[in-house]
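Second opinion, please. Pick holes in both lines of this record:
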Amino acid sequence: MQFPTTLLALSALIATAVSQSVNTSQEYNLKTCLKPNQPDKRRFENLYLYAYHTGAGENDAVFDAALTNVSAKGFLSPVTNSTVPDNNFQEFDLGTQPYPWTMIMADSVNFYAAWQPVRINAGGGSTSSDYGIETGFFINTTGLQWTSSPGNAGTAQDEFGGWLVCNWWHEGPQLFFRNIYYDTPELFTPCSCADVYLIPEYL
């Protein structure tokens, strides 16, 4: 069961975090596309991204097969004053403007884990992750991508190893990202998880 995001008891800190995020692209819903050679993972195909309320101004990124008016409508917002390619925020319109909602690649659960959770939190985001380096989002032929080293996506400096969807904390599909340094994903994929692309379905 999915819960629509609310603004219950947003703190003054969140209220002052309203950024000048600007929607400069066409909005889209993000939808899963199963990567090849996973015939037993069809239940993870064609799922739409939602924000699952976990606290004041905080959400986990989750999925549902149904597209409704509370799905997370995404858009890219360029990082202000950045000249680095692919340095965008992944923002969402959750129907609670003027609060911006930003995709956060959380790595605070376990710095040495093979995958980490993805969150959709209030505020304008940051160009620095817990890794201490710039981050950025962009879209290519296989959908939404993230790089922890904008301008050098896919290099040895980059942390991103792809998207992983798992039946996890919320008894339903939840979004994670893989750490690229674990180069044998078949050894680190529980039966309740699948590797996917996140494809924009433009509105």
Summary: The mean pLDDT is 78. The radius of gyration is 16 Å. The longest strand covers residues 193-202. Residues 12-15 form the longest helix (4 residues).
